[in-house]
Amino acid sequence: MGQVFCGPLQLGLCYGLVVASTLLGGQSLKFIYLLSRPNGSMQLYQFIIMCGGLTLVMAQLPSFHSLRNINLVSLILCLIYCACTTAGSIHIGHSNKAPERDYSITGVGINRIFGIFNAISIIATTYGNGIIPEIQATIAPPTTGKMLKGLLLCYSVVISTFFSVAISGYWAFGNQAQPSVLQNFMLDRIPLLPKWFLMITYIFTFVQVSAVSLTYLQPTNIVLEKRFSDPKKGEFSIRNVVPRFISRSLSVIIATTLAAMLPFFGDIMALFGAFGCIPLDFILPMVFYNVTFKSSRKSIIFWGNTIIALVSTVLSLIGAVASVRQMVLDAKTYRLFANM
């Protein structure tokens, strides 16, 4: 049942996060460019292609194990740039450059309702991105115990860093906070913080999301290479290197193209949350628990799991409609390959 229901969702979510990471990396490069040339004419899609080019080269690392040092660097940079972002938001919030803050919920009527469900999907994606350790924590011992520790570490980092960025960013910018708070650090291409501080933050962000995209690309690589590789040949033999190079290059090129075509970061996160994170985190585990352990229909656990699964299914369906609707609206407003 895991292969039928979980596998496609996990792979789709991992690949979707490659698209989101490539987009965020391109945005970081664009911010670095604007700090150097405020009146520069280069478009966002050009920076996304640059980020995709780096990913294309790094994606040729053959195995998940070979990414261990890159992942360690990614963790350290995540802690640093989240600290910089939090400090930057607090500084702007206390300065005379602080924009006028409004904490009211935007939109009226149906737009507000869909906006709320869209936000729920984004939250599910943001705080449910421990998908790699989740996958590995379900396989046979001794990996199970080790990856459970990794999963706990993952969520400890996510909660401590993302909560600080979210709270400080919303406090500083209110309902004008952008999908990436770093976008608020420049107003009409004018930096609200010292250039050196912004440059360091954007560079750390770019390097970190580049490492993240490699991590989330690896499960897709493994699935594809099982079909095209020859296990009897060496990892670096021509027979395995050529198919690996072609399949990984195509994966990165497609992800880069999607990121450049649809540069709506918040919308993409909402789409992944509705279709991937909510089912994986709040629906399937509850159903699988009841089926596997055959919980009594009179027990609190059975009905608790059932209620959570039903409520989450409604949230997932409405969130899917809301996210697709918002992407259609943004596509009409900004067009494809928009320079956001």
From TrEMBL:
Alphabetized Pfam families for the sequence: Aa_trans (PF01490)
Keyword Transmembrane (UniProt): yes
Subcellular localization, as worded in the UniProt entry: Membrane
Domain of life: Eukaryota
Transmembrane segments: 44-61, 73-93, 113-132, 152-173, 193-217, 245-262, 268-288, 300-322
GO terms of biological process kind: amino acid transport
Amino acid transporter transmembrane domain location: 3-328
GO cellular component, one term: membrane
Keyword Transport attributed: yes
Keywords: Amino-acid transport, Membrane, Transmembrane, Transmembrane helix, Transport
The protein's name: Amino acid transporter transmembrane domain-containing protein
Biological source species: Solanum stoloniferum
Lineage of the species this protein comes from: Eukaryota, Viridiplantae, Streptophyta, Embryophyta, Tracheophyta
